[in-house]
Amino acid sequence: MTRALIIIDVQNDFTEGGTLAVDGGAAVAGAISALLAAHPHSYPHIFASRDWHDAEGGNNGHFAVDGEPDFIDSWPVHCVADTPGAEYHPALELPESTVHILKGQGQPGYSIFDGVDAGGEKFGELLIAAGVTDVDLVGLATDYCVRASGLDALEHGQHVRVFTDLVAGVAAESSEQALAELAHAGAVLATSELVEQV
């Protein structure tokens, strides 16, 4: 069994003060850093995703270029590549070994499985190459990108744990629904207290 930590979209635009701020986003950033500091050897593989959208155009309908966003399929402009809003929140301290995954890039890209590393390799292929069988999922937002990433991980045969103390969502009701959906699909809902000291 090889376990990986997957950190979803802990970016400035998704935390307090950002274009699509999630309440509690900054606290999640700090709590993930605290987990990594307390358990520096618990995860042989750490992956962190970021939305990395194109500045031009609507990113295949993801940005509401004409008219108002519906906040379901279309959104205000956010996490544009190489802008401060797309950077990790400053409270998120990642080890040098972290593999950075960029998603979006002209597409909506909710799931980390839509993303690639710096060399262009797809995330799913990276998991296979690393022999990862179990993933712990944290980050933002529970009801969108965490949900999509968790469901895709399950479809790819991973054993998934979602740490409910290290996620935050856009809305309470939709976040609860997302967690219930993940649990129904086979994910384990837990807290980061389960992380074992190595």
TrEMBL record:
Leader sequence segment: none
EC numbers on record: 3.5.1.19
Family under the similarity heading: Belongs to the isochorismatase family.
GO molecular function, one term: nicotinamidase activity
Matching InterPro entries: Isochorismatase-like_dom, Isochorismatase-like_sf, Isochorismatase_Nicotinamidase
Domain Isochorismatase-like: 4-193
One record GO biological process: pyridine nucleotide biosynthetic process
Source species, domain of life: Bacteria
Pathway assignment: Cofactor biosynthesis; nicotinate biosynthesis; nicotinate from nicotinamide: step 1/1
SUPFAM superfamilies: Isochorismatase-like hydrolases (SSF52499)
Keywords, in A-Z order: Hydrolase, Metal-binding, Pyridine nucleotide biosynthesis
Name of the molecule in the record: nicotinamidase
